[in-house]
Amino acid sequence: MIKKLFIIICSLMFFIISCSGGNDSDKILVGVAMPTQSSERWINDAANMKANLEKLGYAVDIQFAEDDVQTQVSQIENFIAKGVKCLVVASVDSQALVNVLDQAKNNGIPVIAYDRLLMDTDSVSYYATFDNKGVGTKIAEYIVKAKNLETAKQENRSYTVEFFMGSPDDNNALFLYNGIMEVLQPYLDNGVLVCKTGRTSFQDTCILRWSQETAQQWAENYLSGYYNNQKLDIACSAFDGFAYGIRSALEASGYKVGEDWPLISGQDAELMAIKNIISGHQTMTIFKDTRILAEKCAAMVDAVLKGGEPEINDTTQYNNNVKVVPTYLCEPIAIDKNNYQSIIVDSGYYTEEQLQVN
Fold first, then answer.
1. How far does the signal peptide extend, from start to end residue (predicted)?
2. In what order do the strands lie in the sheet with 159-164?
């Protein structure tokens, strides 16, 4: 309920900001397609993109698709009809956008993928994102260190673990999963990590549209079906929203913080996630400073529209099945109760007042 209220307030603030400002009729128009306002993260991304592009002198039209593929297709078609000069797209399902992105290319409109790679098209020019495999690597490395997995075998220790991975239509989710498994698979192989459901493949652990409700349902089913006589030690979650659902399932099953609460990971450093870390209901999250991502993406737009070359630091990883998309990767950071103050608060991402735990 608190999360939903926060999102509603953010959405209203974003609407007010969007409606303010002077006459943009003489400015170059940039269209920004975002997936949803149901996640705090995308609201912040939109606000940051708008601020950065307007600072560079552009008019900005931002649309949210609310995770509906056809809505996003229609929004991009409307952008093209309006005559936008550049498109920034954080896709709902990129494979469904191939035709409309071809329309953009045929109209001479460059397309920049924002934090979700646009697959199966040559109509995307550049990609701005975080090191998605690195996100998975950092989650897994945190688990290894927190549970001292390197010495667990010789000390005859083992831990139960279940996996909650991202949406199968989001290419980032597979990168993240691969980063996790590259680190944790050896511990699954030698029995230090035990997945009682046996669900460890990406196909078995991916959650469509990053649904918190699905993650909660899975956790409830796992706890009732496999963990009646043994506790769950680690919930390897790829998203803060999953962690909220897992928390609800654990509380309903009688788990208590400070007694038998498992290690729960996450991603995005949402406000609620940091509060949960402070209270002990979530162990860690991955901080992806969307202020930096938006700044880098806006600079890409500016360079493209001025006929220049944007800053790129990866030209090998992101093959969308048609081309390797030139990419700028921002660095993710693992956050827990020991460093949230110095990284989250001291940088101004959240204030102490925002992080007060009720």
1. 1-22
2. 193-194, 159-164, 234-237, 263-264
